[in-house]
Amino acid sequence: MSRSTISRFKLTEMFPNEEAARQYIETYRWPNGTVCPHCQEAKRITIRTGGYYRCLACLETFTVRTKTIFERSHVPLHKWIHAMYQLLTARKGISSMQLAKELGVQQRTAWFMLHRIREACGKDIKMLSGIVEMDETHIGGLERNKHESKKSHIGRGSVGKTPVIGMRERGGRTKAVVASTVDMDSLFQAIHENIKPGTMIHTDEHTGYQIDEVYGHRRVNHSAKEFSRKGVSINSIESVWAVMKRGLHGVYHRASKKHLARYVNEFTFRLNEGDVKRHTLDRLASLVTASFGPRITYKDLTA
Question: pTM above the 0.85 mark?
Answer without folding.
Answer: yes
